[in-house]
Amino acid sequence: MTDGYYGSRAIPIEDPSELAAVQHIRDRLALVPQIAERWNRIARGNAGPRSELAFDDAVTHWTRVSSHVVHNLHHAVDCLRALSVLIPPEGELTIPYVAHFPVARSGLEAASTALWILHPDDPRQRIERHLRNLWREVSEEASFAGASERLAPEELLHLVDRQRKGQKAWKRKYVDQIRAVAARTGVADPTLGRYAIGFAEITREATVATGLPGGYGEMVWRMISGLSHPSMLRTVRFMARTELADREDGMLNMQITNDMQTLQYTVDALVLQLTTALDVLARRKLKIGIPLG
To answer: Is residue 7 a part of any domain in this protein?
Structure first.
């Protein structure tokens, strides 16, 4: 890939099917202000005192379901806004090479997590999913703290040692809370297992709530996860490529550009997961629930 190397440059889109995909993407992203405003309206509204969400919050106390769901939806809406800046729905357009994929992936993970927690009609299943996700977060924070201790330079070891005790107390507080909620509601205690939950499973199961096969969402998540990292193999598989020269020594000179179908799948998945999550949250705030615990 050395001969004819020109670095980064803009390549015009001329194929009719790709131009149609670009218009589809821009039409979707034109909905971002409307989606953001709807999110603000739903977020401002308090859950009814006898609603499903209110009862979910009551049984989870200070680790409330609603707090985690709201955080994830804030995250998803912010990512969608950022995506509409990278790919503006109006005016001149130069689509980034790969920068939009990490933004879309982060938004998809956040929207899927909120939808995954909220979707089950069985309140115990909602609580169980909330606890599994909470345990995932606690485990990741504990792992980060452990890595910080191992990697800290010698001159900071005294600070790390001081923080270690606080970190252990922090983790114990969350573990005790998770176990207490699990015992109160009769759901499985995730702290007893070796695996909590991962975004592949979350995205797959959340996609079912949109009416699509779960594999669709997981496929998109896996695809853009590879494109979010500097993976040459994933880029060659899921980006558009034009062969420029096939050299005698076996080296292939090619031009890599965005594949509009890949980008369309990405934007569609994020918008669908997010808008469905907003619908479900609004319903959980209004629908009369059953007390647990």
So the answer is: no
Residue 57, domain extent: 16-286
Q: Enter the pTM of the model.
A: 0.91
Q: Which of 99, 80, 101 has its CA nearest to residue 33? A: 80
Q: What is the pLDDT of residues 90-114, one digit of tens each?
A: 999 999 989 999 999 999 999 999 9
In a domain, 6, yes or no: no
| Contact (Cβ atoms closer than 8 angstroms) between residue 106 and residue 81 | no
DSSP-based three-state secondary structure for 27: helix
In degrees rounded to 5, what are phi and psi of residue 242? Answer: -125, 120
Domain assignment present for residue 2? The answer is: no
- Give the CB-side neighbour count of residue 67, counting CA atoms within 13 A: 9
Number of structural domains found in the chain: 1
Chain centre distance of CA 293? 31
Q: Report how far residue 248's alpha carbon sits from residue 165's, in angstroms, rounded to the nearest whole number.
A: 63
Q: 77 and 193 in contact (C-beta within 8 Å)? A: no
Contact 220, 262 (CB under 8 A): no
Distance CA 134, CA 68 (A): 9
Q: What is the pLDDT of residues 187-238, one digit of tens each?
A: 999 999 888 899 999 999 999 999 999 999 999 999 999 999 998 888 888 8
Asked, for residue 176, whether it belongs to a domain, the answer is: yes
pLDDT tens-place string over residues 32-86 = 999 999 999 999 999 999 999 999 999 999 999 999 999 999 999 999 999 999 9
